[in-house]
Fold each of these.
Amino acid sequence: MAAISLRDVRKNYGATEVIHGVSLDVTDGEFIVIVGPSGCGKSTLLRMVAGLEPITAGTIEIGGRVVNDLEPRERDIAMVFQNYALYPHMSVYDNMAYGLKIAGLSKQAIRERVDVAATMLELKPYLDRKPRALSGGQRQRVAMGRALVRQPAAFLFDEPLSNLDAKLRVQMRLEIKSMQRKVETTSLYVTHDQVEAMTLADRLVVMNAGNAEQIDTPLNVYRQPATTFVAGFIGSPAMNMMAATVAANGRGLELDSGGSVKPRDTALAETGRKVLLGIRPEHLSLVQELNADLKLAVVAVETLGADTLAHGHLADSRGAGGDLVVRLPGTSPVKPGDVLPLAVEPGMAHLFDRETGKRIEA
Amino acid sequence: MIENRPWLNFFSHVVLILGVAVVALPVYIALIASTRGPNDFYSGVVPLLPGPHTIENYKQVLFAGISTSGAPPIGLMMFNSLVMALSIAIGKIAISIISAFAIVYFRFPFRSLAFWLIFVTLMLPVEVRILPTFKVVSDLGMLNSYAGLSIPLIASATATFLFRQFFLTVPEELMEAARVDGAGPMRFFWDILVPLSRTNMAALFVILFIYGWNQYLWPLMITTDPHYYTVVMAIKRMADVADSIPQWNVVMATVVLALLPPVLVVIAMQRLFVKGLVETEK
Ligand SMILES: Nc1ncnc2c1ncn2[C@@H]1O[C@H](COP(=O)(O)OP(=O)(O)OP(=O)(O)O)[C@@H](O)[C@H]1O
Ligand SMILES: [Mg+2]
């Protein structure tokens, strides 16, 4: 167990920089999830921590020791790979024991550790099998067992669940979480699945194009996205974004697409500032005509059972822009062509600077 | 095919049986000839039924040798062939798996140059470079020695190339997992790569053993001492006696004996060999 800290870590492939200086402090025992779209550099960052990829600049510390130039084996980490990377010619037992054998543990000690891990992961009946004779979920468990028996300072996971079907993914997600709770080992977990990210993380690192856009608890990331990218990436359907200008005399926001809104309990920026107004689909609710902040002309309706998603555009929008999605209760009788009067829930509007995309705090 | 077309069936069977016959008949004739007496061949008719002289013929070949061709007993030559074939097969596999390992898994200066140099030797089998090779071997004093018989044939690229192609299909994560598990390069080589290459090695072993066993030209050039003759040379020498008719029964007994080791190797390696050809162990 150990704290991990990254200081302005950068990575270049030739002339192109793919990680633009990421800093992160992980406390002992914390579960950090790195999430972001494909190609944003999540794997690269993780592999740099593992020592599989040399870093171009910055420092990485594990347990207070700078590991920049150490081989993976000297970093005291264990990694779970996306395609499991089990040794195909070794039995499950040997797969789990291999690292311990190399570390020079006694046969007896190895047996005990593998036994504990196999019990925890319910792998005991399969110890003599080859990986080829296991299901995807079982292989996944072996890969985790291999990491577990090492009792490393940190676990590194690179999209370990992405090859499993949806149901198994949920189950394994819970297992990983409870396993990590039990052994309290610092973990870095890479995924592009936001549900996985939200449910597993103590803290989230949201990455975009080689930058860590926000590092915070899942709820804070959801409630106070630091940038428009984070706002759009976390949450499904994505947050509605509307270009607007702050109107004079506290009259609210003039929408570029026409009309104006005055969200309640939201501090507005200085007059004339060009902003993006962000409202999550679930933070709009159907109200009386009189109390409406916005009016939505419904174009399409998606019925999900528990919820109904209404897609459309602002009723007083002129041409482009002003597209909007609303999440309504499943019972709402909505159909295309309706015009829905909507109110923004108090305090649930987000303002971002239009130039920088950064959140405007009150 | 699900359709039942009797004529097609009949025709394909005829073709297959003819094919088998073409391959098997000479073997059969050799086998029969090795059981006959020395005088059964003067008539010019090839005997097709076994004769009574089996034990006698094989005894003579194995222990007495044939005086007319100045050949020592065949046992020694079988042994020479075995040493040569084994050295070539094992030497080639050992060298090429290591060089393929270096080329695939290490970054070193002139890596691709090294690969291409090895690759180019594919175009230079022994027969092409036989004179310069002979000169080198003789200057090194390796004429009439096991080293001279095998080393020049070990140096070639086929197997390196095959191992390289195989290593390229081994997922990179396996190497990374081993690194994280604490395995250094040689550990990874022995614990992961070599076991994974087992079936490839078996297949190569069979092919190279037969290649080594069947060498004719090279042993012929560099051996003048009968103690280093190989069995393939012996067959040629026996069949080639001057001023008299070859003792076909004895020659054929030698042929049959010379056939045995490759057959045994194929049978012994069959399980792994077939697996190596049809299945990539995932
Ligand atoms: N060897 C390389 N040479 C050049 N660029 C590379 C190399 N490896 C990765 N990249 C680039 O680095 C960026 C980050 O790659 P990385 O594998 O970390 O993405 P990722 O976030 O893990 O994506 P995914 O979710 O698809 O796995 C990508 O844009 C990729 O093109
Ligand atoms: Mg990745």
Amino acid sequence: MNVSTSPKFKENVHGALRDESLQRALGRLKTGFRDKRLAAINNLPEFEALRDQACDIKNHTLENLDHYLLKFEENVKANGGHVHWCADAAEARETVLRICRDKDAKSVLKGKSMISEEIGLNDFLEKEDLKVVETDLGEYIIQLRHEPPSHIIAPAIHVHKEQVADSFRETHKGRDPNRSLAEPRELLDEAREVMREHFFAADIGITGANFLIAETGTSVIVTNEGNGDLTQTLSRVHIAIASLEKVVPTLEDASSILRVLARSATGQEMSSYTTFSTGPRREDDLDGPQEYHVILLDNGRSNMLGTEFQDMLRCIRCAACMNHCPVYGAVGGHAYGWVYPGPMGSVLTPSLIGVDEAGHLPNASTFCGKCEEVCPMRIPLPKMMRHWREREFEKHLSPASMRFGIKAWAFLASRPRLYRTATGLAAKVMNKMAGGRGRLAKLPLAGGWTQIRDLPAPQGQNGKTFKELWAEKQAQKARGSK
Amino acid sequence: MRNSAKVSSRDAILGRIRQSLGREAGQYDAPKDVLDRLSAPKSNAVVPARAQISHDQQVALFEQMAIDVNATVVHTAGFEDIPREVARFLAEHNLPARVKTSPDVNISGLPWSETALEVTAGVAGPEDAVSVTSSFGGVAETGSLMLRSGAQTPYTLNMLPDTHIAVVKASEIVGTYEEIWARLRTEDGQGNMPRTFLWVTGPSRTGDIEQTIQLGAHGPRRLHIVIVDDQAS
Ligand code: SF4
């Protein structure tokens, strides 16, 4: 972050984002992610060539998306699995529910899945009286806190260990109330124990997918904890939820892209577990799920093909762009107000929920170019944010002060409106996606808003205050729910 | 209603994709480069040079990379030495002298009675703290074990026990992932996969609490790799 250019912004951020644990957590992005990424890529001379190759593979796949998806479907079926094409979030949620009902399921275990967040699956299933447990430690923590993730690979990055301990004491009944939960190790051990019980009792295991492989009808998950593996192996039914663009042609293509994924994400040479799952358990297998389903979600992707936003579909959700983004680094993930934060979120969110809803997000950028520089898939994120700004300008959604040439830092320093707009998003989204989006708009936004309200009020602001907006949306939601 | 809704979503999505990609009406067949890529999968051009070395060096690289990600590694001269090594490792770490092995006769059929270990074979359950399994192979470039599920190698053994001891033959350690896929295709036929094929690169870990890396999140805390030097003269 170039502190010298905007001392005032920094002061404002410190004043506004008084959330110490968030600031501490964001401070750790450097040693936690950035330094490790750099060390990993310095350790691999071919890294730049591997990026180009990964890019080429995805471009080829996107140009032939129909062919590869059909081949994927054919091979899933050939292996005894099922493919469900879902046009939007509602259809995906209903499809998952139908599978749960067919199996008479009571409990659902979840591996980490951003698509599940995108479609608001947990709230929906809980309303339908299913017990839903997130098994990834970070996802579990935010589930207990009723929050959305604030980072796509480290969902609880904003939470400090004392808060985790509080949540555990509250939730894990029947344990010694005087037990020590001061250290991360103690917290992890308790979570591990609790989760074991869930693993052995689960009916349905839902995971995301980092890749779908057309050649073999395989879904791939990449994890460090092993939770996704236990989720999908011990449950009777494995459901993998993936968006269309996750497909790649062959095992070799997935392997080539895997070489840039973990290095860009956590700076690991490879994540602990890369799991290739194909169909249900075989006749002579001793373990594994009895059924295998893939939810193939569109939710706006097919409309991005053939447009200036097609390149965004190369994204492999590594989070390098947000780890290196000065705006994300200052405000964290919740300020973006929807599922996907950081630069990739600023591009993707307007594509998925509409520029009317998210048109201000592309302004959450200093156009420093760092995101594109580190993106393993060479996605031109700043250029695409500009595209959105142009569209927004054309639609006259943008006040004069938000037009081109404005330095975002200066803008942010004097006007917190952008954050206000960004945080207001989720409420709108919630309204739009009726049925089960409540969780996204709960605590963190209120928290974010409390912080933001401390900023000087912008001049000429004709938007509603958070409290007004909040009350209005809550009322709408209440009216809209069954 | 649901069935027809499903069909139409599939068609609608495919229709939008085809339209976005500018396909001519009715021209929906996959072109030759797509068909070739799927029917005769090939390694992509760029693979790390670090693994393009002699086989001995690949074994050494595999070992080093695995150690770098917190696995422990030993060599044994033959399979018959494995029970003693397992007993030694468990004693050294104060671990229970009870193991569950994969049913694979290469492992379950070893002279376990020469040790004081209590040994059974099969799937892992909640009570199993230590597993001993065979491997499909190892990949030197990242020190990754290659494990496949099957009747002889149930998957839960890789993931449930606190301590996973994996046996890999030196002769089955290769440089890159691509070499593993090529072998899998030769053995199982192209396009065929076991229910689960797993790459294991070090023990389970998490950084989810304050970005502090800790081992043993939900999978094994310890990964001990026994390389059987089956090619040594
Ligand atoms: S846009 Fe690029 S850097 Fe950001 S998450 Fe996607 S692939 Fe990673």
